[in-house]
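User: Predict the complex with ribulose-5-phosphate.
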Amino acid sequence: MKQDELKKAAALAALEYVEEGSIVGVGTGSTVNHFIDGLVNLRERITGAVSSSEASTRRLARHGIPVIDLNEVTDLPVYIDGADEIDPALCMIKGGGGALTREKIVAAVATRFICICDSSKQVGTLGAFPLPVEVIPMARAYVMRELAALGGRPVVRPDFVTDNGNVIIDLHGLRIAAPVALEEEINQIPGVVTNGLFARRGADVLLLATQTGVERHLHR
Ligand code: 5RP
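Assistant: Here is the predicted structure with ribulose-5-phosphate placed in the model:
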């Protein structure tokens, strides 16, 4: 199977986690797009979705799935999203699509984070994928210096503005042995909105599509 077919297989496997009558948390990206397309068939059986990006909101709306403001929601049984990398402890790097801040907020509200990935995203140690950091524009140069001091090579993502009006700095060349500590450290830098490490709140379930089927990994 090609990579996109694997993404679709993982995404469709996540449909069984959608609870009847509930609101579903929806992530962002090409894997999640397959999930949204599959969710159409459950449209009548859910109340609606909370979205993590303008792009996912548009796709949900096109499919006639009601998009609900997160501020109106107290009970969100599941959040379904992809990842750029995921390690054996189900810590992730996310934000390749630049939606990391809203993704982290929706994930924080959800009871369970279901990560949907093809097997190319599975790694032993995070960091080969550049770590995205969302930054308030006036803090860009300062945050670049602070990130460089951590040992990485910060690069401003060209021609990119987040849904929140901010810039993304991608931090290259890290080997992230302690993801929780690094997530907290980077988030302490003034001007950082959030970074793409999802380690303090990692995934609870990983649906990993491989050539031999979709594997289910549970957070231990
Ligand atoms: C977007 C994300 C995505 O989940 C991540 O980039 C994976 O994307 P894809 O499913 O297209 O491979 O974090 O901000």
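The CA atoms of residues 115 and 206 lie 5 Å apart.
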